[in-house]
Structure formats: structure tokens, C-alpha cells
Amino acid sequence: MNFKNELAAWSKLVDDALDRYLPKADEYPTTIHEAMRYSIFAGGKRLRPVLVLASTKAVGGSVEKALPVACALELIHTYSLIHDDLPAMDNDDFRRGRPTNHKVYGEAMAILAGDALLTLAFELIASSAAAFSLDRVNLVTLEIAQASGSRGLIGGQVVDMLSENQAITGDIMEYIHRHKTGALFRAAVRAGAILGGADAEQLTSLTNYSEQMGLAFQIKDDLLDIEGDEAKLGKPVGSDVKNQKSTYPSLYGLEEARRMADKAATDACAELKIFGPEAEFLRSLMHFIINRDH
Amino acid sequence: MNFKNELAAWSKLVDDALDRYLPKADEYPTTIHEAMRYSIFAGGKRLRPVLVLASTKAVGGSVEKALPVACALELIHTYSLIHDDLPAMDNDDFRRGRPTNHKVYGEAMAILAGDALLTLAFELIASSAAAFSLDRVNLVTLEIAQASGSRGLIGGQVVDMLSENQAITGDIMEYIHRHKTGALFRAAVRAGAILGGADAEQLTSLTNYSEQMGLAFQIKDDLLDIEGDEAKLGKPVGSDVKNQKSTYPSLYGLEEARRMADKAATDACAELKIFGPEAEFLRSLMHFIINRDH
């Protein structure tokens, strides 16, 4: 199966699993369950769950069994988007071309829907206990909780918020990205590896891959805001410049930012040299991320 | 040791543990850690963690080892209060006589502090793995996640919000209480019991105790809003009547509500008949709750 087909197949697997794991929209109290489903099924790329599956496959684990943990990562990612979009935070009315959660369900319900998705993520991880040895599930819980907390994702969001409309250093920009987006990519890859029974060398290689991949992803994001096509992106370009946001291109220049993204992508793939064809998907994914147009 | 002294000793144990488990206020990014600590150390009764400790003691478990899970319950309780107080929800400026989290740190930080406390709760539970067999930790994680999610605490908050300024039936009022406050009491007692190695009979008795105790707690709360002393409560009385809120006294009358509270308290203690002096604290706690003046 080629990369695009496998990516589509895994996204479908994740979507079907999410549909099974989330309370149905008609379960009482219905509004919260509708609100949770609205944002989960809003057309995300499912990058974090796919990373879990690809990483577990690279070490010979079962993709099927890793689905609850893969979906948990998507629940956490989605909760963080719902809360980020709130009027008190980024105050965004649209995401991926659709009204944001609070525009449809109101602020209170959006806050609670986010809370409920975060809580359900940990229930899902714990429910993996039937499929894996408990010590792996325990390690994965710790990994994901740490990556999502005030020393991970939330810490990145805090520093991003406090840095708004300010000139920041490259170090602070890197802190924001490493925490706000990087931490969850890293946790996704490590969770898949741990569930699949990675040895120490494999875990180190995959961790390094995830960090370089996260960096390349972020620089590409910054580049798309300058060079991207609004129609393909589904959002206006140039918002970083307009908001005077520090980005890789603004701090290092366009040429150097492109070079940094390419280098991170190359380094990411170099980390996979201990793997054979079982990691081909992770290699292709890195190319896909660096060449994407949205 | 008499009940009041033991309650004070356990509260102190919980406070000290929370201080160890929470990131220090000067850890970067400091604002979020200050905000988390502000609400955690705002003078709560520590009822939920104490229930974990009392329940584990009743079945012969170690109070010391149960501390991370006990504290996790307090983190979840506190996060739910921070989010409930937000302008989009109950819009409360004060809690326990102090400005609410968002009044001090702003709405965005209050939302993130709540998110971070919820996330840290699951990290803490997972960190118990060194002290207990992993299957107990896994059961406790499931128990607490379910009690906190859209089928528990959050579901109760949703129905409470949607029922505002409406006449509701006794059934709906009961749904709200059983979920919004009852679910976490129940999870606290069951978590303590499971960690302590309760057998099936003990777990059933303690579960029934927690449900009757939660009911008595809620009716007493309603009664205090009518008969309480503002100075001791630290908040104005009569707010339920003013907000036309359905309560046990408003639906069943003052006399009947008092009788229902007493019956629930008596039933709760009757559930403990299979236990000896090791459950004395839980019995005293029930008396304490029903006779409290704040």
C-alpha cells in the first residue's frame, strides 16, 4: 500500500474508533455530547493518532490494539483547540472553515466539552489495560499526562499567550513550539513505541525522530503562513506578520527558515536508520509534512 | 485520637502532600503555577481526599500510600470550581471569601489552570504505580475518570446549567446532585477502598455509604442556604430562593428535607455495620457533615 492510501486507511480507522469511543450525540445530557462530537469530527488531519499507530508498527506492535491510546491523543489535541479558540484566549470564530465550538454551543458548553474530552482521554488510556501489560499502560499514562500538563502543552500555551504582541527571542519561540505542539507529537510517538514493546535504542531513535519532526512541522507551519494558498489552507495567510508574531522566518529570514525545515526533516529520517521497511510510513510522513500545502 | 483531631491531622497530611505534588510557584512559566496553587490553597475542607484516606483505612490499607490518589481528587474538585466560577458559567467573583481565580489571574489563565490541575490529577494517580499493584491503580484511574467526565461531574454541571431559572422535577434535581457532587464522593470512597484491597462486600458497603453520604451532604447544603449563618458560611444565605433554584426544601418543604437528610445519614452509617472501629472515622464524618454550620 502506498503512503497516501495507508494514511487514509489509518485516518479512517481512527475516525471509526473515535465514533465508537465517544458517547453518542443522543445520550443524555445530549448538548455536551453533541459539542464533543462537533469538534472531534471537524476534519482534523489525525496526525497525532497516526503517529501512535506508525510508531507502534515500526517496533512490531499491533495497530489495532493501540487505537484507544491513539484516539486519546486526538481527544487531548481537540480539547486544547476548543479552549484555545475561546474569547478569553485566541477569540477565534472559525477553525478549518467551520464556526468554532463556542460559536455554536456557547462558551460554557465549549469549556465543558473541552474538559470532558480531556477526561475521556485518560479513561480511554486506562481502558487499554485489557490489551497490554499494565506497566506499559502506566508508562504511557505518565508520558501523556506530563506532555499535556503545565510542563508540556499547557505551559507552551501560557508562554505563547504571555508573549503576544511582544518581540521574543529564538529561545522563547522554541520553548513555545517544543511545548505547545512538540510535546504531544513526542508523546504520541513514544506512546506507540512503548505500547509496541520498543527496546531502549528504538525508543531513543523514535524520540529523536519525533522532536526533529515536530520542529520541521512548526517551521513549515510558519512558512505556509507566508507562502501558502488561502484556499488550500482554509484560513487567511499573513496573520503572523499582521499580529507581529515571532516566527522562524521573521527571526531567521525566509531562506534560512526553509533550510532549517529541510535539515530537521533530514535529521528526523536519519534517526530511523536502525529500522527497515517497518518504519517506511514514518519516513514518508516526514516528507508529507514538509511538502504539505495545508 | 478524637475525630476533630484526626480530621485536622489528615487535612494537614493532604495539604503537605499537595504542596509537594504541585509545581512550585517559581517554576517557569510561573503564572500558571501560581494560579494553580492559589485555588488549591484557598482553604477547602479537603473532604474528598479525606474520604479516600478514611475509606482505605476502613479496609486496612495504608493512608500514606493513598495520598497521591487522595490529592488527585482534590485537584479535580478544585479544577471544577475554577471552571464553574468563570464568567461564562456561574460568574462568581468570590469563593470562600477570596476573589475567584479568574478575578486574580484573568479568564484565560483560570481556564488553563483548571486544565492543568485536571491533567496533573491523572499524572498523580499514575505515579501511584510504585506503591500499589498496577491493576488497582488501573481500576482507580477508570473509576475517577468516569466519575469526572460527561457521564459524571461534567454531566451534572451541564444539566445544572441548562436547568437554571427553570422549575425542575425531583428526578432532575437528583440527577444533578448525584453527578455534580455525588460522583466524586463516590469515586473517592471507592478509590480508597480499591487501593486498600477491599473485598466485594466491603466495596459494596462503602459504595452505598458514599451515596447516602453524598445525598445527606447535598440536602444539608440546601438547608444551610436557608438556616445558615452568613458569617460562618462565608457567603450570603438565601441565594437559592433568590435564584429560584429547585432544592430539597423548595421541592419537599423544610421539615421533610430535614427528615430526608437525617435518614440518609442514618442509612449511610448503617452501611458500615460490617466494619468495626476501623470505620469509626467514616461514621463520625457523617455526623460532622450533617451537623456542620458551614
From TrEMBL, chains A, B:
GO biological processes: terpenoid biosynthetic process
Task: Read off the NCBIfam families from this record.
Answer: FPPsyn (NF045485)
Task: Please list the cofactors this protein needs.
Answer: Mg(2+)
Q: Which UniProt keywords apply?
A: Isoprene biosynthesis, Magnesium, Metal-binding, Transferase
What EC number(s) are associated with this protein in UniProt? 2.5.1.10
Q: What class of enzyme is it?
A: transferase
Question: Which GO CC terms are listed, alphabetically?
Answer: cytoplasm
Could you cite one Gene Ontology molecular function of this protein?
(2E,6E)-farnesyl diphosphate synthase activity
What name has this protein been given in UniProt? Answer: Farnesyl diphosphate synthase
- The reply to whether Transferase figures as a keyword in the UniProt entry is yes
The signal peptide annotation in the UniProt record is none
Q: Which reaction does it catalyse?
A: isopentenyl diphosphate + (2E)-geranyl diphosphate = (2E,6E)-farnesyl diphosphate + diphosphate
- What family is it from? Belongs to the FPP/GGPP synthase family.
